[in-house]
């Protein structure tokens, strides 16, 4: 077990966290959960009430990492993202867009901006998953009671953004609410009032500790299957590797299950590496075919993001994101702070162009709520699970997405023309007031569809809200069981047919519960 000093009630989960190098070479549990992330932590905690559970996480523990825990330093998660061992693992899609995925106990809930908002109604109706809405409500409340802060005390920039949303026609004013409602609102955050993060890892504090073993730095390489004439094909265990290169086998008891919660990239990757996927593709990689499933790794979807950034004529305190504007087709959020642009972060926030300066910046971002363009993933290696799969999202492949982006950017232009935004203009030597844009400025003619489309393409980035790859009703059934295989489920964003409409972390934590 890891030795931690000063373990308190907020981090009591550390008592049952172990490094994979300390694990036995063979072990047996009722349930094995692969992926100790946004879904895996609440899922393992819930199961531990009545069953023995092994939770396997490929990353480490960010118990003392200020870049993970403190809101004022959260941008460093992106700055320091690498492919080796950082909490945020960097990758670039074949579309050329820089992205990250969580590689830490607590998953992406430990590296995001903390915005917390429940899914909209359309998500449940279109998901292909069978929901009990009473349980959904209680699951959200279980999460929120533990890690979500609600307050209508927001900084001056967030206050201005909310007023600009209302003045520009994104109404009504929904006040402070965790529900996804059209209009403008203040939502919850997994950062508390002191700026300290409370991600999904904190939900492990609710676990029955004698029933739960959490193993970190454990890279699962494949699922073990067995087949017989009476039961058919069943998952019976997993093989994982520790940082010393030793291989470990964990199996499930009769009536137990293996549950993949490795995320949009990790869950389809593990299925493919285990021989579950399109026959011709697996054969081309010399992976023994266990089950022919043509939809695994397909229908990946990422919400494209565009933004405008200005530098104000006066310094501003505060960072973070609490205010949002919601319409049927797009979603508007904002952040503020001091960012170092002469860094790897520069092309993430400001694709074209960006200055080699440190500036106080104010950013308004839009994302498409439900893009229609979809992509796919392929294995970077048939045997090395530590390599991020090769991903293509095909942003704007469906021209309707580009049209919706143009509408969203026009909404940003309307916000800038409101009276509340006048104070953020600078003044030139002739006394003319103007917005000092950092990066790409808005097109002069915002009714020119071609110019707006070009702006969307030039400023294209990600909100890190990608999903798909193991879709409900294609790879899993309405109860999340992998179709055609016993004792195997997928519980994470890879099963989502559509986006929750908002930041998905609330929905995914509820999902795990």
Structural class call reads alpha/beta
Helical percentage: 10-25%
End-to-end C-alpha gap:
26 Å
Mean pLDDT: 93
Radius of gyration equals 23 Å
Stretches where pLDDT is under 50 for at least 5 consecutive residues are none
Report what the structure shows.
The strands form seven sheets. Strands 1, 2, 3, 10, 11, 12, 13 and 26 form an eight-stranded mixed beta sheet that branches. A seven-stranded mixed beta sheet has the order 7-8-18-19-20-17-25. The protein has a three-stranded antiparallel beta sheet with strand order 16-21-22, with helices on one face. The protein is of the alpha/beta class. The chain is built from twelve helices and 26 strands. Helices cover 21% and strands 26% of the residues. The longest helix is centred in the last third of the chain and has 18 residues.
Helix-strand layout with pairing:
Blueprint: E1 17-19, E2 26-34, H1 40-47, E3 53-56, H2 66-69, H3 75-79, E4 88-92, E5 98-102, E6 115-116, H4 121-126, H5 133-147, H6 156-167, E7 173-176, E8 183-186, E9 188-189, E10 212-216, E11 219-228, E12 232-241, E13 247-260, H7 263-273, E14 276-277, H8 279-284, E15 291-292, E16 298-300, E17 304-310, E18 323-326, E19 330-340, H9 346-349, E20 358-368, E21 375-378, E22 390-392, H10 399-416, E23 426-427, E24 433-434, H11 449-458, E25 461-462, E26 488-490, H12 505-512
Parallel strand pairs: 1-10, 2-3, 2-13, 3-10, 7-8, 13-26, 14-15
Antiparallel strand pairs: 4-5, 6-9, 8-18, 11-12, 12-13, 16-21, 17-20, 17-25, 18-19, 19-20, 21-22, 23-24
Helix pairs in contact: 1-12, 5-12, 10-11
């Amino acid at each position: 077990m890891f030795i931690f000093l000063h373990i308190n009630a907020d981090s009591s989960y550390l008592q049952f966290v172990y490094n994979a190098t300390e694990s036995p070479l063979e072990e047996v549990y009722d349930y094995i959960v692969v992926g100790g992330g946004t879904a895996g932590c609440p899922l393992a905690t819930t199961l531990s009430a009545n069953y023995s559970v092994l939770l396997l996480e490929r990353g480490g523990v960010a118990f003392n990492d200020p870049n993970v825990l403190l809101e004022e330093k959260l941008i460093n998660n992106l700055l320091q993202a690498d492919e080796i061992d950082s909490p945020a693992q960097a990758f670039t899609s074949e579309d050329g867009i820089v992205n990250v995925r969580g590689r830490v106990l607590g998953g992406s809930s430990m590296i995001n901006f903390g915005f917390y908002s429940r899914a909209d109604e359309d998500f449940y109706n279109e998901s292909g998953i069978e929901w009990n809405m009473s349980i959904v409500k209680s699951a959200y409340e279980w999460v929120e009671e533990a890690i979500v802060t609600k307050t209508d005390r927001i900084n001056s920039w967030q206050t201005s953004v909310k007023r600009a949303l209302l003045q520009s026609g994104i109404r009504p004013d929904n006040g402070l609410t965790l529900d996804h409602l059209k209009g403008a609102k203040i939502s919850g955050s997994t950062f508390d009032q002191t700026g300290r993060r409370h991600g999904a890892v904190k939900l492990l504090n609710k676990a029955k500790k004698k029933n739960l073993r959490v193993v970190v730095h454990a890279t699962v390489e494949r699922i073990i299957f067995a087949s017989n004439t009476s039961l058919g094909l069943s998952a019976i265990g997993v093989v994982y590797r520790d940082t010393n290169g030793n291989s470990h086998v964990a199996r499930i008891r009769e009536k137990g299950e293996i549950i993949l919660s490795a995320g949009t990239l990790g869950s389809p990757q593990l299925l493919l590496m285990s021989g579950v996927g399109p026959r011709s593709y697996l054969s081309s990689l010399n992976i023994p075919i266990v089950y022919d499933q043509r939809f695994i790794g397909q229908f990946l979807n990422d919400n494209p993001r565009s933004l405008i950034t200005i530098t104000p004529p006066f310094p501003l305190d505060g960072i973070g994101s609490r205010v949002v504007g919601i319409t049927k087709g797009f979603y508007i959020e904002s952040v503020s702070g001091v960012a170092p642009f002469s860094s790897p972060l520069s092309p993430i926030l400001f694709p074209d162009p960006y200055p080699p300066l440190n500036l106080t910046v104010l950013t308004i971002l839009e994302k498409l709520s439900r893009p229609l363009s979809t992509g796919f993933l392929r294995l970077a290696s048939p045997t090395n699970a530590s390599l991020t799969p090769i991903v293509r999202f095909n942003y704007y492949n469906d021209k309707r997405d580009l049209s919706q982006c143009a509408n969203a950017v026009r909404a940003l232009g309307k916000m800038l023309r409101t009276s509340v935004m006048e104070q953020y203009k600078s003044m030139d030597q002739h006394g003319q007031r103007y917005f000092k844009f950092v990066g790409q400025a808005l097109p002069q003619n915002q009714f020119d569809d071609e110019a707006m489309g070009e702006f969307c393409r030039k400023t294209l980035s990600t909100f890190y809200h990608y999903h798909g790859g193991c879709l409900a009703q294609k790879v899993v059934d309405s109860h999340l069981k992998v179709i055609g295989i016993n004792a195997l489920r997928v519980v994470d964003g890879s099963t989502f047919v559509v986006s929750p409409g908002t930041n998905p972390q609330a929905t995914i934590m509820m999902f795990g519960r």
